[in-house]
User: Fold these one by one.
Assistant:
Number 1:
Amino acid sequence: MSALIPTAAMAQQYWDGSDTTSGNGAPTGGAGTSLGGGAANWTNDIYGATNKAWAGGDAAFGGAIGVHEIGSNYQYKGSLAFKAKF
């Protein structure tokens, strides 16, 4: 039996769309390449305090509606959540 132990790098991240800057108050959502693109368009909290690249954990999508393209060359080990708002 093998187990996957979650680490800080696998914490839930919130899709911040085309916004790659930190501190904008909330994840904005919207269209873009969402997994594996390498851009810092994910935030680790619902306030958008720190944007980072995809870490491969749990993903939450909310905010503006948009088409999400799953980028190439990524590892996905978590869950996807689609929320009306954060």
Number 2:
Amino acid sequence: MQELRFDGATYEPERDRDRLSRQHGAVKQALSDGGWWTLTELREHLAAFGIVASEAGVSARIRDLRKPRFGSHNIVRKRVGSGLFAYCLLPVGRAAAALAEAKS
């Protein structure tokens, strides 16, 4: 498996690579179930497996998944409350249905 390449002004590979890689894999795996997840639900799901992440960290991993170097995954969001969104990773062939659901 290719090593993930994180970056940023405060990124320190020795301190951050393993933690961010674990978060990345867990967020991707959770979103791969085809369901809708809020940031809180994802954070709690990761915590159940001993992976520490803040909601801001989960949000950053979702942004990473959308980047070309992390696979250019198609992740959509829908409003589920006042200022609250849920996210779904679209598998190939499900894009139209998920987008329609997000708009409803």
Number 3:
Amino acid sequence: MKSKIVVYLLFFSLTWFYSCSKKNEVETIPQKKLTSPYLTPEVLWSFGRINNLEVSPDGTKILFGVRYYNIEKNSSQNDFYVFYQV
């Protein structure tokens, strides 16, 4: 269990370091404006999807990612967030 946590922390820290070193190459995901009351496939693709949910060993923090897709560029971007217990 501890080795799995160490591997995850190492992976996320290297991902974070790599993403911070490439500040000029970060793409922004275009925002879709709702022009009709219907949820079209394009609008659904513009929503972020939660992934990589992990809870810290002491249970005080939750780490998760939100992946956004860019249909025009055929790419995706994963943003990581941490929730702290208050």
Number 4:
Amino acid sequence: MKNRQFTPTDKDSFDRDGYVIVRSFFSPEEAELLLNASIQDENIKKNTFGREDSGGTETKLTLWYNHGEDIYGAFSKNEYIIDAVEMLLGERTALYHTKVMQ
């Protein structure tokens, strides 16, 4: 994975707004790979629960507290993700949980 690096401007946005949107952090191919995996993953299908918003649209959520040796673990252990989060928070980080929303 060759990803876009976070910049001081991203950090400033995070400090000011509490979040930052980074377009093209992953390549289109990487994003498609992750999306397809989440759609086809039987564990996600079995462990998903949904909630409807006020307009009737359902949001599906799957949540777990360990990172495995799968595509989700590879993305969460990606050095660019870790470096970016540590830059934003200003300290070392650890994985607390993984969420997949559809």
